[in-house]
Amino acid sequence: MSQEVEFIEPMGDDAGADRASTLFTESFSEEPMGVWAAPGRVNLIGEHTDYNAGLCLPIALPHRTYIALAPRADTRVRVVSDINPEEIMEVDLAGLAAGDVKGWAAYPVGVAWALREMGFDQVRGFDAAFSSCVPLGSGLSSSAAMTCSTALALDDAFSLGFGSTDAGRVKLIEAAIKSENDMAGASTGGLDQNASMRCEAGHAIRLDCRPGLSAVESVTQEPVDFAAAGVELLVLDTQAPHQLNDGQYAERRSTCERAAALLGVDNLRVVADQVNGAAGSASTSNDSSEAVPSAAPTLDSVLEQLTEQARVVGGMSDEEIERMTKRVRHVITEIGRVDEFVDAFGHGDIETAGQLLDASGDSLRYDYEVTVPELDVAVDTARAEGAYGARMTGGGFGGSIIALVAAGRSKEVAQKIADAFADHGFGAPRALPVQPAAKAERIR
Ligand code: GLA
């Protein structure tokens, strides 16, 4: 038997805003202009699809990062966080280049830098204090919560006017992604930032990552009411160390890009739509019902074509080819599962929704190979305990799992996982109570 599993409760807006404000005043001896908050996210299905122009289905967590901020007239930035309140990081935006800022300060500083790089010269320096209850390094997008809360605060502080509309927020998302990619050196595909900035409470967003879509085209709000469906979503953080910038994520990404090039398409979404029948994609045309079935490639035929191209054009070894086809099979099938899940969950067919979560999890484990033993044990245990479905969520290589369980069973299933962890000699996991929560907003 293991210790009782800790459930990390959200801080709540009043407490979060108080903590960020107090830290601000103590650190900078003045009052902040305001307090803003942005949530972490959990992705229900559609994993490692965003950078393949695919589909994802995240919800915003009730766990948020709070930022108290005041603009400055000069270009200096001072940031502090309640993780280490004694340490105020200072940077000057003038002359700053990609990768110049090290450590956590790269994330908020990078947002101001990115906005200026995007041509918003009115963005200047600022002082900011952070307080967060989004677990760090757990695959729940604590970094997006930080960059998105900063982007929204800077939008208000320097009157950019983007934060009040969904289309405007897409610009702020661009700055948040640029900060993470170019200043912090953490590869990210847009799922996390879109979830943090665009999810409505009680909804998941169906995020379509094809380039060039308008804001309206890229997101639909899908109602998600776990209680009405008689279920709970258990989010369990394995606490296995998780890192996206250790090369594995970038390696998966470049394999997908190489595969798309070998198949002669811009991205794997193009072939996914051909194979899956193009639900909701631009390539669906009204008169395609007769032509497509005979012409549409199957998953097998695409993988055969890829194998052939990889051998002849790419000069790849059998081992490399096998690995690449597994990665591509994950991406194509995973994109197809997103709309199937929306459909099943939307019709209250929880059995099917759960099976889709299982299929996604198995695909991530065996084809995309982004799990670690802690994730596998957690998923296996949740399934053995009767979850409708369970899978790792987020980038993988550590981090969290989700399990769709019958209402009232989260605690029990979490405890069984903790017991299994103790048996395997793993550290204690922790869990989060989760409902689909609201996007980033100003609190004070
Ligand atoms: C990380 C990245 C996202 C996405 C997921 C996997 O969270 O930041 O952009 O690629 O991994 O779905």
Automatic annotation (TrEMBL):
GHMP kinase C-terminal domain: residues covered: 342-424
Lineage top rank: taxon: Bacteria
Domain named Galactokinase N-terminal: residues: 23-71
Signal sequence annotation: none
EC assignment: 2.7.1.6
PROSITE patterns in the record: GALACTOKINASE (PS00106), GHMP_KINASES_ATP (PS00627)
A Gene Ontology term for the protein's cellular component: cytosol
Alphabetical keyword list: ATP-binding, Carbohydrate metabolism, Galactose metabolism, Kinase, Nucleotide-binding, Transferase
Domain GHMP kinase N-terminal: from-to ranges: 107-197
Family: Belongs to the GHMP kinase family. GalK subfamily.
Protein name as catalogued: Galactokinase
Species this chain originates from: Bifidobacterium choloepi
Gene name in the database record: galK
